[in-house]
């Protein structure tokens, strides 16, 4: 049996997306920058994808800059703003993905003033502390994710963007986990930059985008042949971009259905989990993505449980895919004040559009059997 419950790490390629990509792997091979018919066919595919992507996040197609994924979009946003705005502090929430915090820490090593924004025990940005930080001295950039990859907590980025912009800062939102799971409206959000990624929405790996307000000055990420408004040079990955566009269109059409389905599965799972004595569900009191739950069974190290679950055919993770396999506690949970020994027991389940109720029930049953095998006594947690 193989049950995949790790959709925040990556999603399977939707067969309809593969259909949309196939012609560009087999057929039109021209360079999208070439003026002849082969080039024009490739260019058309990219522009169709740009419009599909823009529609999903209520942006203008001219605001979509294709990248190789979410990591590149986040690096681009941070470095692109920092290079243009030489003065002012760079602020980021303490729970950002490494693709935001690592480039910021690299800038800090080069002498730039970089600060974290604290979160509360549920993983929500501490707004009062943030406002104080904004008042202290000039802020060039604020980066805060829309939804956290581990806990699923959704931030009020519209309000945070409003506060940041009123203080004269550029606001960047990492929407990699939010895309396709909740509605996003770039035009109304107040953010000037938004990062998204294809492989989290049943699209191929190796495609993403930075949605960038055209009025915002950005330093190019890759200098080259002038592609992507001269900001990201390099011949485009046409098939992957076409796939990303198709995945975006499907995500828009199916958003409500996916939300309702995954929320139902997540709630069923949480109801069962809450009957396990001693279990802790992180950020249970916060507004979260419909598909995500992160919990800990204190005293059972996540590495142990993940290995045992994998042997039984269940794919889940301890938090971010990058941190999985390491025995470092999640920086997200530590920032929320979770003790290190509890954070080391964290398990993240992220369900997807094709998971079934039966799979979720089998997961709970297997988890309880494994825990009993590890000496944890449990009452019946079976679901009716
Ligand atoms: C919140 C968040 N941002 C950025 C990324 C990086 O995206 P990519 O895998 O497309 O580089 C991830 C991937 O897990 C993520 O969860």
Description:
- By secondary structure, the chain is an alpha/beta fold.
- It folds into 2 domains: 3-10 and 256-373, Alpha-Beta Complex (Aspartate Aminotransferase, domain 1), CATH 3.90.1150; 15-250, 3-Layer(aba) Sandwich (Aspartate Aminotransferase, domain 2).
- The protein has 12 helices and 12 strands.
- It has helices at 15-26, 37-56, 70-84, 98-109, 127-136, 157-166, 186-189, 238-273, 302-311, 331-335, 340-343, 357-373; strands at residues 3-4, 64-67, 89-93, 114-117, 139-143, 170-174, 193-197, 208-212, 280-281, 292-296, 314-315, 346-350.
- Strand 5 (139-143), helix 6 (157-166) and strand 6 (170-174) form a beta-alpha-beta unit.
- Helix 1 runs antiparallel to helix 8 (238-273).
- The model has no long low-confidence stretch (mean pLDDT 95).
- Pyridoxal-5'-phosphate (PLP) binds at residues 69-71, 74, 97, 99, 145, 149, 174, 176-177, 197, 199, 208, 321.
- The site of pyridoxal-5'-phosphate (PLP) has 15 residues, from helix 3.
Let me know the largest β-sheet. Answer: 7 strands, mixed
Count of folded domains: 2
Mean pLDDT: 95
The separation of the N and C termini measures 22 Å
Q: What is the CATH level 1 assignment of the largest domain?
A: Alpha Beta
CATH architecture of the largest domain: 3-Layer(aba) Sandwich
User: Which fold name is given in CATH as the topology of the largest domain?
Assistant: Aspartate Aminotransferase, domain 2
Task: Find the structural class using helix and strand composition.
Answer: alpha/beta
- What is the element string, with H for helices and E for strands? EHHEHEHEHEHEHEEHEEHEHHEH
Radius of gyration: 21 Å
CATH superfamily of the largest domain: Type I PLP-dependent aspartate aminotransferase-like (Major domain)
Poorly predicted regions:
none
The count of helical stretches stands at 12
Strand order of the largest sheet: 2-8-7-6-5-3-4
């Amino acid at each position: 049996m193989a049950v995949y419950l790790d959709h925040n790490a990556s999603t399977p390629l939707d067969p309809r997306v593969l259909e949309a990509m196939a012609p560009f792997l087999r057929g039109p091979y021209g360079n999208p920058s070439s003026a002849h018919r082969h080039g024009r066919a490739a260019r058309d595919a990219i522009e169709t994808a740009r419009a599909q992507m823009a529609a999903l996040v209520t942006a203008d197609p001219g605001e979509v800059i294709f990248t190789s994924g979410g990591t590149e979009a986040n690096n681009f946003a941070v470095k692109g703003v920092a290079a243009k705005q030489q003065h002012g502090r760079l602020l980021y929430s303490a729970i950002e993905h490494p693709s935001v915090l690592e480039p910021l820490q690299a800038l800090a090593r080069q002498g730039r003033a970089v600060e974290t924004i604290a979160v509360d025990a549920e993983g929500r940005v501490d707004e009062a502390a943030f406002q104080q930080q904004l008042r202290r001295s000039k802020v060039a950039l604020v980066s805060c994710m829309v939804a956290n990859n581990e806990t699923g907590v959704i931030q009020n980025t519209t309000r945070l963007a409003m506060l940041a912009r009123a203080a004269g800062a550029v606001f960047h939102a990492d929407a990699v986990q939010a895309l396709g799971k909740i509605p996003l409206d770039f035009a109304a959000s107040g953010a000037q930059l938004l990062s998204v990624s294809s492989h989290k929405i049943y699209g191929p790996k190796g495609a993403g985008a930075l949605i960038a307000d055209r009025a915002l000055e950005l330093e190019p990420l890759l200098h080259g042949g002038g592609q992507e408004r001269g900001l990201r040079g390099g011949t485009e990955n046409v098939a992957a971009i076409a796939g990303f566009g198709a995945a975006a269109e499907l995500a828009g059409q199916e958003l409500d259905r996916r939300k309702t389905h995954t929320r139902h599965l997540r709630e069923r799972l949480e109801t069962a989990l809450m009957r396990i004595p001693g279990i802790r569900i992180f950020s249970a009191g916060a507004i979260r993505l419909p598909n995500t739950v992160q919990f800990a069974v204190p005293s059972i190290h996540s590495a142990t449980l993940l290995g045992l679950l994998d042997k039984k055919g269940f794919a889940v993770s301890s938090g971010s895919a990058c941190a999985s396999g390491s025995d470092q506690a999640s920086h997200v949970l530590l920032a929320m004040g979770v003790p290190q020994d509890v954070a080391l027991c964290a398990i993240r389940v992220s369900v997807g559009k094709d998971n079934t109720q039966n799979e979720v029930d089998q997961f709970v049953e297997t988890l309880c059997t494994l825990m009993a095998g590890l000496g944890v006594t449990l009452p019946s947690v079976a679901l009716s």
